[in-house]
From TrEMBL:
Gene3D superfamilies (UniProt xref): Cytochrome P450
Coiled-coil segments on the chain, per record: none
Organism: Actinacidiphila guanduensis
Low complexity bias spans: 455-479
Annotated region (Disordered), positions in chain: 453-486
Upper lineage: Bacteria, Bacillati, Actinomycetota, Actinomycetes, Kitasatosporales
Protein name, UniProt field: Cytochrome P450
Length: 486
């Protein structure tokens, strides 16, 4: 009996200790199935058996793959996460004059010479790093460290003035709330987001904006929501995540890190590292488009109008390369980015990221500031969603950290990461299921288009949006459910 009891206890202990190695993946799979059940079958994922990687870009660039929000249940979920003001968020505007005007304005605000943009990014990074990492040895979360950098940077682009500390806190609080809800690690806190909206409304009312905003944004609140969504949600979040991926890659590839630190002026080498990082860890998981007309690419590739196409960036980026799972910056000396399956900023013919030119420039500048100050070390997992926010050990250059201490910290990070992943997966399952169900209940996109046309004009005889219950809009269903973009 004693031996049997000991065996059972050992088996139970082994089961518990092994859960961080297998349960998180099982919970992610369960989460995808739960969300698919709540959302219903919607979307055709590409690439797939019919649309291979060679036709992926052709389909993505097709003129009829241009719908963005209207007619897709998936839009209700994204509108929920990106509130307030998803109806004027550039990425969710329907094609037409309003989108064109907003896109031109965004490009204008982001404009600047490479030298100007690089200096602004370097100054912001230097200021934030010196403030937030005063010691010789610090444990940080790289996404958290980078977010104030981009809050200051984009505030400077929008207002042409330095970002006050209190405003930086508003921006980072807003951006963290958006990305944490997207990752399903926290619920939305609309009051936190509303504080930034009120700040932007005050600045607009005072005439402090040095840019002319589109007349197609009809009122102050639309204009505030446009600035909040484009620059202080998406831009801050995406640049923070891009830098977290890049710096975590360097922390886990010390030979690459040493080479870049020794030759900070080598933009070509750093550019290769950025290309490879964004290939392996694209910022977009799934981008969806709704077809506005029938698409026939020949053969068996035919999609009727109203089809929801889900473009799978990680799957596409994994095709057409030797050893696609190996981090190899040198591959970009052997292949051309424009000829490779590489679209980190989308495709030029279908709403490319407006910061496609700016991003590599400012990423290089910020990276040089980090490498000038610190060596980076990390032993945590690295996945595209990066929900752990990239834990990393920073050691100030010139400071000698004993090897045994560094090894102990890395062992701690590795073990903590496993157990955090377990707890976080359970949290994501619960919070994510609740938010998906709540988004389906609110049906924000569906309700909006029941009362407005695609250019934001009220429909004749319709009540104002939100004054009536949600209308029932027919949905398109594809042969496979669109995966949740975690």
């Amino acid at each position: 009996m004693t031996v049997g009891k000991t065996v059972r206890q050992a088996a139970a202990a082994a089961f518990v200790l092994s859960t961080p190695y297998w349960l998180p993946k099982a919970l992610v799979g369960l989460r995808v199935r739960v969300f698919a059940a709540v959302n219903g079958p919607e979307g055709v994922i590409v690439p797939n058996e019919t649309v291979g990687p060679e036709q992926f870009a052709e389909l993505y660039a097709h003129p009829a793959a241009d719908g963005r929000s209207k007619g897709a249940g998936l839009s209700d979920l994204f509108w929920y996460w990106l509130s307030p003001g998803p109806e004027v968020h550039q990425e969710h505007l329907e094609p037409g004059p309003r989108y064109d005007a907003v896109a031109r304005t965004t490009v204008s605000i982001l404009a600047g010479s490479s030298a100007q943009l690089s200096k602004a990014a370097a100054d912001c990074a230097a200021r934030v790093l010196d403030e937030l990492v005063p010691g010789d040895v610090e444990l940080v979360r790289l996404r958290d460290l980078m977010m104030p950098v981009w809050a200051e940077f984009f505030h400077g682009l929008v207002f042409h003035e330095p970002c006050p500390p209190g405003v930086r806190e508003l921006i980072t609080g807003n951006a963290e709330d958006v990305v944490n809800s997207l990752k399903n690690t926290r619920l939305r806190h609309m009051g936190r987001r509303a504080r930034l909206t009120r700040y932007l409304l005050r600045r607009l009312a005072a005439g402090d904006l040095p840019h002319e905003l589109p007349a197609e944004l009809s009122g102050p609140r639309d204009r505030a929501h446009y600035l909040q969504g484009a620059f202080f949600n998406t831009a801050v979040v995406q640049m923070s995540e891009a830098m977290a991926h890049l710096l975590l890659v360097l922390a886990q590839h010390p030979d690459v890190q040493r080479r870049l630190a020794a030759h900070p002026e080598d933009d070509h080498d750093l550019g290769n590292v950025i290309n490879e990082t964004l290939r392996m860890y694209p910022l977009f998981g799934i981008a969806h488009r709704i077809t506005s007309a029938d698409i026939d690419l020949g053969g068996d590739v035919r999609y009727p109008a109203g089809t929801v196409l889900c473009f799978d960036y990680p799957a596409y980026h994994a095709t057409g390369y030797e050893d696609p799972d190996v981090f190899d910056p040198g591959r970009w000396d052997r292949i051309s980015a424009k000829d490779a399956h590489h679209i980190p900023f989308g495709v030029a013919a279908n709403r490319p990221c407006p910061a496609w030119r700016l991003s590599p420039v400012v990423m290089r500048a910020a990276t040089r500031e980090v490498l000038a100050r610190f060596t980076l070390h990390s032993s945590v997992s690295h996945t595209r969603p990066i929900p752990h926010r990239a834990p990393c050990l920073l050691v100030r250059r010139g400071h000698r950290l004993p090897a045994h201490r560094r090894a102990a910290v890395l062992a701690f990070l590795r073990v903590r990461d496993r157990w955090e992943d377990l707890g976080r997966s359970l949290l994501q399952l619960g919070l994510g299921t609740w938010m998906v169900a709540d988004a389906r209940r609110l049906r924000m996109a569906e309700t909006y288009f029941a009362h407005h046309d695609t250019q934001g004009n009220p429909l004749p005889g319709q009540q104002a949006a939100g004054a009536a219950g949600p209308a029932t809009i027919p949905r398109t269903a594809g042969p496979s459910g669109c995966p949740y973009p975690h």
